[in-house]
């Protein structure tokens, strides 16, 4: 059956239905065959050439350039045909761009439309961050908010820069260290690239479907930890975590009983009986080091570093017994979804935008910017428009290795 299907190098364009024309921009409701939703992720696929071992390969989607992803956004967000103009609707909805930033220094701009109502949050988000909530709502994303200029991470606003709004241009800058090499002696090292995906057909278009990385209990504990006072909080979010918290950089490991929100003393629950195994200890959340940072500017005016020592984006290593159980279950079994404990080549920090009510913005991925950062800075930055072609080459190289 696959032999009779057309071989596409660019996936079918979503069906665009115009819903509003404002200041010369036409915004559309985009009917995409598949959307990333809770638990699942979709990447356009195409039929492989004759003689290929794999039935499908990774393909691009139109327009083939750095932009907002058709699949990786809340459906409430309306888009222009080039997927660079966004219009919000009702409560906060978010969208991620279509290529992750994994290492290096990158810059882009977002222009808040003139006479734009509503509010915006701008920042960078990992894949685990929800789309039906604002950027910065959890530990998987970092953001700046328009109304106050506060920076937001773990759902907690902190004083940062000046407010911005309609007509302003916000520069978004991120610097990430080189990705570490996987340990060749440790097959469970999450830095090893491994894909866990299945080719499916949705409304006449092939997609690779995979399980999304789940929210870890360690990240949930980090979000639920008591907040430090604003006077002592720095741009490092982990400074708001008590030193006895398992995710604190000052503590290498801890067990569940060390969590500050757990009951202590006589009111503590009895230890588990011998019939029930104790829950595994919480794993530490690694960071990318002090040189990793996020900064913003408003109309060319630098607001300073908003965040540094960013949380690492690779999945946490699974417990050893979990890896063994999976290894025993795989051989000879049917093609089913498996939770991926490794980097699949698409982890990283994605530029992300959140719109409240009818807010309107336009993404400028470069190379021409209204307010480019200085070229003689400490780090050699690149416009994010260059990341798209680089990312697609990485994906096709992984296809070839499979």
UniProtKB/TrEMBL annotation:
Keywords carried by this UniProt record: Nucleus
Q: Which domain of life is it from?
A: Eukaryota
Q: Where is the composition biased (Polar residues)?
A: 226-256
Output compositional bias ranges, type Pro residues.
266-284
Q: Kindly name one Pfam family recorded for this protein.
A: SPRY
| One GO term describing the cellular component | Set1C/COMPASS complex
State the SMART domains in the record: SPRY
Compartments, record wording: Nucleus
Region Disordered, as annotated, extends over: 225-294, 321-340
Q: What residues does the B30.2/SPRY domain cover?
A: 46-229
**Broad class of the protein's primary localization:** nucleus
Give the protein name, as stated in the record. Answer: B30.2/SPRY domain-containing protein
Identify the species of origin: Neolentinus lepideus HHB14362 ss-1
């Amino acid at each position: 059956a696959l032999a009779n299907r057309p071989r596409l190098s660019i996936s079918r364009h979503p069906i665009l239905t115009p819903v509003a024309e404002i200041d010369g921009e036409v915004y559309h409701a985009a009917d995409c065959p598949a959307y990333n939703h809770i638990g699942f992720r979709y990447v356009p696929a195409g039929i492989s050439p004759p003689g290929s071992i794999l039935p499908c390969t990774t393909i691009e989607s139109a327009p083939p350039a750095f932009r907002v992803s058709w699949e990786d956004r809340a459906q409430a967000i309306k888009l222009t045909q080039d997927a660079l103009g966004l219009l919000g609707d009702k409560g906060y909805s978010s969208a991620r761009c279509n290529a992750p930033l994994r290492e290096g220094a990158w810059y882009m701009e977002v222009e808040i439309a003139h006479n734009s109502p509503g509010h915006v949050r701008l920042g960078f988000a990992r894949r685990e961050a929800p789309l039906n909530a604002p950027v910065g709502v959890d530990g998987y994303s970092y953001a700046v908010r328009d109304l106050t200029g506060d920076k937001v991470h773990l759902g907690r606003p902190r004083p940062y820069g000046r407010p911005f709004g309609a007509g302003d241009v916000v520069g978004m800058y991120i610097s990430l260290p080189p990705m570490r090499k996987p340990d060749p002696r440790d097959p469970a090292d999450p830095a090893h690239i491994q894909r866990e995906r299945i080719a499916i057909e949705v409304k006449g278009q092939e997609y690779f479907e995979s399980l999304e990385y789940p929210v870890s209990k360690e990240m949930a504990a980090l979000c639920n930890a008591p907040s430090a006072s604003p006077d002592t909080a720095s741009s490092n979010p982990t400074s708001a975590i008590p030193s006895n918290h398992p995710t604190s950089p000052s503590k290498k490991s801890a067990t569940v009983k060390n969590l500050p929100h757990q009951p202590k003393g006589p009111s503590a629950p009895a230890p588990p009986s011998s019939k029930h195994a104790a829950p595994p200890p919480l794993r530490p959340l690694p960071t990318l080091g002090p040189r990793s940072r996020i900064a913003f500017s408003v109309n060319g005016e630098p607001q300073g570093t908003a965040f540094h020592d960013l949380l690492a984006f690779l999945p946490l290593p699974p417990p050893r017994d979990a890896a063994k159980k999976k290894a025993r279950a795989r051989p000879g079994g049917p093609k089913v979804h498996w939770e991926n404990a490794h980097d699949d080549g698409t982890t990283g920090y994605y530029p992300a935008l959140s719109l409240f009510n009818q807010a309107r913005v336009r993404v400028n991925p470069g190379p021409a910017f209204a307010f480019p950062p200085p070229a003689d800075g400490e780090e050699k930055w690149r416009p994010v428009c260059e990341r798209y072609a680089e990312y697609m080459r990485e994906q096709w190289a992984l296809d070839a290795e499979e």
